Amino acid sequence: MNSSRSIRSNASIGDRASPNFLIKRSDNIPNRSSSPPLNNRSSLIHLQDTDKNGPLTKNFTEDDIKYHKIAFERCIDLSERGVITNRERFIQALNYVGYDLPKATIDQLWSTNHEEITFKSFERILNQEKSIDERILEEAFETLYSKDKKFDWNIDFNKFRTDMIEKGDRLTEVEFEKLRRLLGTENGKIDVKKLTKTIGENKDNCRQKIIIEKKEQRRDEIERLSSRPNSPKLNNNNNVRIRIDSTSQKLIIPSGTRSVQIKGAFFCEYFDSPADALYFSIGYSFEIKKNTSVWITLKPITSPYHAGSLFKNLDVRLLLFEKLPRSTERRLIQISSARSGIKSYIELNDLPKGSYEIIPITFGGVLRPRTREVNERPPIKTLRETRGKKYSMSKDYRDALEYIFDVFDFNDNKQLDRNEYNLWTIRTTGEEITNEDWLSIRDHVSLDEGEGISKENFFKLNDFEVQDPDTTETDLWAGLKSIGFNYALELDMMCPFELTVHVNESNIHLESTSFVELTEIKKILIKFLQNKSEKIKLNSTVQCFNYHDDCGSILIVDNKGPHNVRISAQVVNSNNAALTLPIDSRKPPIINIRHETSQIIWFAHKLDSLRPMELDANVQVQ
């Protein structure tokens, strides 16, 4: 994807600096010490058919059921009560208890259960499907290599590696090398008996580690609860308790108003570490000629490329800025504080005539960076195919490009104008389109003056790169990763949205302007929200500002002292909330606050507007 331009990172826009401060966050699926070091998610286990005589009936012991419960609870959605609503977490829960099911089976189970897995349905699935054991593994290997007359329970490692990648296994090069050392391969051969035994032992070790970890968590919780009344560090001033009631109100827009709609997207990226994640949005400008009532709504959009249903309740807000006359500066005048379903909105009865800018924001309550391990896994999809001596675009790549075109076609007119194409190029290469570039593009696809790039011409431009022999598969993937796709061609670091402005004015034009790095927005938000927040004094120089509304909560810490301070913020209870801090973590995150500065500690988002949101946290100066 535009490999002729310098692509600086798998997930970056140009040479942008890391933020001056960071908000701690947990990953979607935590990397715990008990996660299996050997990845057994391999399709070769499923080469043999499942029992064709009907579902299996297993007699799980009491210990088995306890273990299943522990594994299940590790993967539930914290905003729901005892339900897994994320597809990847469902797969993780199955892997924890030794089940490695084919993608087709996962898809069917996920769909049959309406993208919500309760523990009862989880146990039913475990009862019906086959788990991994040494006998099944040996049978699978025997089936896979039965046509090889020289098969003697020893397999060439390179052939094994190739077969695993073709079957959809997700091991990285480093993990394959660890596997080679773990199995002690000699003369480039794998001892199948040793491999199956190692996987079986790994599964048992994983089970024991998870059970031990659960016991330690319970012990720590008991100690924490028993010590709370006598702890000299805790008092009422250290507790931040938030309750936001349910909302059933609907946004009512009078008939006769003029509406203009435009699309956009949030992007998440990082350079070296997920802890340094950056968030980007898009700014939009409009102008009104007279004082008028205005309604602005923002709605997240999901697609088949988004695994699970988590992005449907993305933590979003709207910021409305006034552009100051005869100046390049802007002034924040409004933040969305109300919701109607999954929409966040601003309602103003009398907005003065003038020029304005809208910036949608999100800060990581739901849209989170993928782990470094996942980011470095090799792709399981092919983006181009070889036909003779020529290359052609694969169907998977063409489908992904079609979706990307639709995302960047902000005004939905079936073509990309120069501004839209420029924003796509910035996103994928870090560089803007120059006048010379645009003339060259027009010549390649024979565009008329003022004409935009159609979808077919967009394919054509990208096909030039696919056919270039100097382009590698890695180059093509770098472009997709910069958009937010992972190695499985799923969107986990990008979420589109739909922005609509309603006004009592006959003519209004809404235009996308540029990418906005949301780190810059935090400083503006702090100044804007401090006078609208509840104050919580931590000591003589440090205090919190807790802002909350129908959308959620924003917590700010202000350090007026001459020295830097360290703040611990432990969320001990949460209901119906997505948070940028770890929830119920054993060790509270520590945030450094520089002297005479303020910093946002968390963004808490009410997931379901029809249910109340509750949050209980201990915030302390260390």
UniProtKB/TrEMBL annotation:
- GO CC annotation: ciliary membrane; plasma membrane protein complex
According to the UniProt entry, which residue ranges have a biased composition of type Low complexity?
28-45
Q: Which domain of life is it from?
A: Eukaryota
Cellular location of this protein?
Answer: Membrane
One GO MF term: calcium ion binding
Q: Does the keyword Repeat apply?
A: yes
Kindly list the biological process annotations in GO that this record carries.
Answer: positive regulation of protein localization to ciliary membrane
Keyword terms, alphabetized = Calcium, Membrane, Metal-binding, Repeat
Positions of region (Disordered): 22-50
Give every EF-hand domain span: 396-431
User: Mind telling me which InterPro entries this protein's record contains?
Assistant: EF-hand-dom_pair, EF_Hand_1_Ca_BS, EF_hand_dom, Miro-EF-hand_domain
Which PANTHER family is this protein grouped with? EF-HAND CALCIUM-BINDING DOMAIN-CONTAINING PROTEIN 7 (PTHR46819:SF1)
Protein known as = EF-hand domain-containing protein
Annotated organism of origin: Adineta steineri
Its taxonomic placement starts with:
Eukaryota, Metazoa, Spiralia, Gnathifera, Rotifera
